[in-house]
Amino acid sequence: MSTARSSLIMAAGTVTSRILGFARAVLLALTIGVTTDAADAFGVANQLPNNVYAIIAGGVLNAVLVPQIVKARSHKDGGQTYIDRLVTLIIVVFASVTVIATVSAPFLVSLYTNGWNQQQLALATAFAYWCLPQLFFYGLYSLLGEVLNARSAFGPFMWAPVLNNVVAIAGLVGYIVIFGADPTGSRLVADWGASNVALIAATATAGVAAQALILLFFWKRVGLKLSLNFKWRGVGLRPAAKAASWTLGMVLITQVGGLVQTIVASSTIGARATGGLAIASIAASSIAWLVFMLPHSIATVSIATATFTKISSHAHEGDHVAFKAGVGKSLRAILAISALATAGLMVLAYPIARVFAGEYPATIALGNVIIAFMVGLVPFSFVFMLQRAFYALEDTRTPFVFTVIQTLVFVAGAITIAFTVEPRWLVAALALCSSLSIVVQSIVAYRLLRRKIGAFVGIGLTSATTRMLVAALFSAAAGFSILWFTHSYSQGSFALATVLGAVVACAGVGVVMVLVYFVVLALLGLEETWATWLAVSKAFRGITRR
After folding, report:
1. Which of 53, 194, 311, 419 could form a disulfide linkage to 392, CB 3.0–4.6 angstroms apart?
2. DSSP label at 375?
3. What is the pLDDT of residues 366-399, one digit of tens each?
4. Taking the domains of the chain in order of start, what are their residue ranges?
5. With contact defined as beta carbons under 8 Å apart, do 356 and 26 qualify?
């Protein structure tokens, strides 16, 4: 299967999942609001399993499984014994950590919050008891999915989250039907009962479970079966453990930054009580991150995942020319989409925020956080692909180094922000600090990769990046001009008065921005203008003929 076709299949699944994810986020905002105490309590609780998962395995499965399974396929049994033992070991680890984390819910909630009263902590803890079991299923999903990716079966990994969103949406709809919507936070924290908590949090966990378990069906489709094997010695797991150690260290460092960010962001809740609802905090940051991750998930993750197995094979075979060509081509494709997405989402940040927030002040608060995060999209996507390049080379030490640098820059900035920025700007300032630290990380990562494998000669990466950014600036200017001269950033304007108006404004201005972007790319003579379109069209025809 070609990289273009694999990327298209994954992108289609991601697009569907993200559309449903947006619907889920909008329903959640309608159910418990964006800048409310209940929204932040659920935001902390629902993020905890992701944080713990990241600490014990985030990136480790990416860094270890695909390269090691590609190598294991040369074994007499095609790598089945290796897979069985590695999968068994990881499942045992995840099950044990999930039990410990769930029991430790009160401690984890207190660790990730600052200045919350007892009622707020109690609500977040109640949510956490239901949400933390997601940890096991996130691990199982990543484990089963990465094995499928190593077998070049990319589609299921990207389509499974669709089921997750369907289950969660059903739970939110049920909640609204039974308890009613509360977008402005009129329901006090003390009014939340066990049934309210369970219906939202339990269905969120059920969605993650469904997302993981559905992959077992696709294992059978590719000739695999889940056979637990507790004989972990003598099968060659030591290289995997060595690779995992550096990646685990990298994730621990990253979580230090995440912990600092969450603690500082949660401190705004106290100011909200005296200063009004329109102060962005944890829930607003989560929604802004969802918007930020949309283009990254659709384009970058799909392209990088489809490329990863191939460049891992090139690295294993010692074909450095093919390796660099694969990495360089993927970087250009990723940057072409990320540059356009940055321009579009920054210009349309306030109409997008209006879809989630019901009031103008909350819309502006959320929009500011979106804009600040979008500054870092291009370097974030760039770093994501560079990490996969190092992982393919079985080098997990170097990503640890440039992640430590990024975290140190962010933590220093976040601490400074905590003492110098007023509450209503604090979360947006944190998002901007995160973006700037990622810019530093991307520069360091690129230089370290060039030192390891040499320059990307003949690929024109620097020139292409410059022209893409120029095209993105023209696109942004066109979109901003339309919104500015139609007074679409003003309170009560068509773009901000209603959700329908916001959606129409995003669609109309978005089309103009896309057209301007590709016209400028064509005038600048960039091959991605037409080559990407032809590759996608060819891949689509190949799928429809099957």
Report:
1. 311
2. T
3. 899 999 999 999 999 999 999 888 888 888 789 8
4. 3-544
5. yes
